């Protein structure tokens, strides 16, 4: 059964073609960096028919979104490894457990911006702000804050001291580090490591729509959208989007009643890498890059934060294109946001979007609209909150982790600095496209930050798949009784 599991996942992740197992082993080894091993011919013959049957089902299920306008704007980069030494004098500082929440967080954010520091994450619920600094920058920031507040008003700790090593540990293992047991012990081989853009696109995971409903039900079908990777450095969001797609197909193929019901009544649209040029850049040059790679008016500073570029309550909150959260000079200036909107507007035979999940990291939170303001109540707030707490509960029942439910404006700090929540994909989709919309901020709330080790890929995928199933069931239940 181990070999059958291996066959099934390789078949799932192959290009649309009926492969024999012998044909498939050669190309997959290069992509997955696995150890060489022999497979008996009898086993190959035994499972060839299973491969063909599964591929036929897969071809019916998956329609690759052709000519979707989703761009790949990666600038030409030499095939070089990430220069780890560029992080050698950097570490990640966490400021936490402050006494005066609003004033301290506001001051910490403002001071970090003035010093042009990279803010990794702010969490109001967990009461921390993580900032990437050098020793000099960290000293300057702490001196400033202790002048404004007593040193007993907050705590400061280094959560990542060896940043190059933390970056290195997120990269795929070499084949020498993998054994045959590693390769055959789990069917989710693709999810043993993070995958670069070329690997994801090679296995037809660029933009996919899943559905098996009949034409007679077409007018009743609702769309469920899942996006990941809008911020390039958040690799776990891309892997999780791919995992949900994978597991949904596996459950359908196994005849799982819930999965069959979902795909017969819902269209699933997956976009695992919403920021392809930025994602590619994190694999070749700068692992912790956040924005896209678009040119700006400043020739020294490329990139726009796609998640601030949408045309809803847009504001250019940062004057400097060098900032990580630079929104551009006008709404939809980020080409990815512009083309994504065009795609949603122009897609033929599409159905109303009832569910939108935008995957991010990190902090273990469920965010609901609005992000731009805490003064504006969302429509249908009762159902929105029921859904949010249901998503959190489904994760907790699966893995034991508690994802805090919080209004997005508080998480993003828009209640302190309004520009921080402006122009978000969450608000734009909720206000213009989707009936219900959420951001899931994935693991962890501990000390890994964006550099979550690959061993977490499968557990995160499993807990978020549980949340997706809850959401899908909610939609179908709601539709039945309303």
UniProtKB/TrEMBL annotation:
Molecular-function annotations in GO: metallocarboxypeptidase activity; zinc ion binding
Record's signal peptide: 1-18
Pfam families for this protein: Peptidase_M14 (PF00246)
Keyword Hydrolase annotated: yes
Annotated InterPro entries: CARBOXYPEPT_ZN_1, CARBOXYPEPT_ZN_2, Peptidase_M14
PROSITE patterns per the UniProt record, alphabetical: CARBOXYPEPT_ZN_1, CARBOXYPEPT_ZN_2, PEPTIDASE_M14
Highest taxon of source: Eukaryota
Cofactor: Zn(2+)
Gene3D superfamilies assigned to the protein according to its UniProt record, in alphabetical order: Zn peptidases
Record domain Peptidase M14: where: 167-475
Keywords for this protein: Carboxypeptidase, Disulfide bond, Hydrolase, Metal-binding, Metalloprotease, Protease, Secreted, Signal, Zinc
CDD domains documented for this protein: M14_CP_A-B_like
Listed GO biological process terms: proteolysis
GO cellular component labels: extracellular region
SUPFAM superfamilies per the UniProt record, alphabetical: Zn-dependent exopeptidases
Subcellular location: Secreted
Function comment: Inactive carboxypeptidase that may play a role in cell wall organization and biogenesis.
Family of the protein in this entry: Belongs to the peptidase M14 family.
Record-given protein name: Inactive metallocarboxypeptidase ECM14
């Amino acid at each position: 059964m181990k070999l059958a599991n291996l066959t099934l996942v390789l078949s799932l992740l192959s290009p649309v073609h009926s492969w024999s197992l012998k044909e498939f082993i050669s190309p997959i080894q290069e992509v997955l960096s696995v150890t060489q091993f022999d497979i008996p011919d009898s086993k190959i013959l035994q499972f060839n028919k299973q491969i063909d049957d599964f591929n036929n089902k897969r071809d019916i299920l998956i329609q690759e979104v052709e000519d979707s306008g989703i761009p790949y704007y990666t600038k030409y980069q030499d095939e070089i490894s990430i220069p780890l030494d560029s992080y050698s004098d950097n570490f990640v500082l966490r400021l936490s457990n402050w006494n005066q929440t609003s004033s301290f967080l506001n001051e910490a954010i403002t001071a970090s911006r003035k010093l042009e520091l990279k803010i990794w994450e702010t969490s109001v619920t967990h009461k921390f702000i993580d900032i990437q600094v050098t020793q000099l920058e960290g000293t300057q920031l702490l001196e400033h804050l202790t002048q404004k507040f007593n040193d007993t008003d907050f705590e400061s700790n280094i959560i990542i001291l060896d940043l190059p090593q933390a970056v290195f540990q997120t990269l795929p293992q070499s084949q020498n580090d993998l054994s045959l047991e590693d390769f055959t012990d789990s069917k989710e081989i693709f999810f043993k490591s993070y995958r670069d853009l070329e690997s994801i696109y090679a296995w037809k995971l660029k933009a996919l729509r899943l559905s098996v409903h009949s034409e007679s039900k077409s007018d009743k079908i609702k769309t469920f959208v899942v996006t990941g990777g809008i911020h390039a450095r958040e690799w776990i969001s891309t892997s999780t989007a791919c995992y949900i797609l994978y597991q949904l197909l596996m459950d359908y193929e196994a005849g799982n009643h819930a999965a069959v019901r979902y795909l017969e009544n819902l269209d699933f649209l997956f976009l695992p890498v919403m920021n392809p040029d930025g994602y590619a850049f994190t694999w070749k040059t700068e692992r912790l890059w956040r924005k896209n790679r678009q040119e700006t008016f400043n020739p020294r500073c490329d990139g726009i934060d796609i998640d601030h570029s949408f045309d809803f309550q847009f504001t250019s909150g940062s004057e400097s294109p060098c900032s990580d959260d630079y929104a551009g000079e006008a709404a939809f200036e980020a080409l990815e946001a512009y083309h994504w909107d065009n795609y949603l507007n122009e897609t033929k035979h599409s159905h109303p979007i009832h569910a939108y999940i935008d995957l991010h990291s990190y902090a273990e939170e469920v965010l609901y609209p609005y992000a731009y303001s805490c003064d504006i109540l969302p429509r249908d707030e009762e159902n929105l909150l029921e859904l949010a707490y249901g998503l959190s509960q489904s994760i907790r029942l699966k893995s034991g982790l508690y994802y805090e439910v919080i209004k997005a404006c508080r998480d993003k700090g828009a209640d302190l600095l309004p520009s921080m929540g402006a122009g978000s994909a969450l608000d734009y989709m909720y206000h213009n496209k989707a009936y219900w919309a959420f951001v899931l901020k994935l693991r962890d709330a501990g000390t890994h930050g964006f550099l979550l080790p690959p061993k977490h890929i499968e557990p995160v995928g499993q807990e978020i798949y549980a949340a997706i199933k809850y959401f899908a069931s909610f939609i179908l239940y709601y539709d039945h009784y309303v």
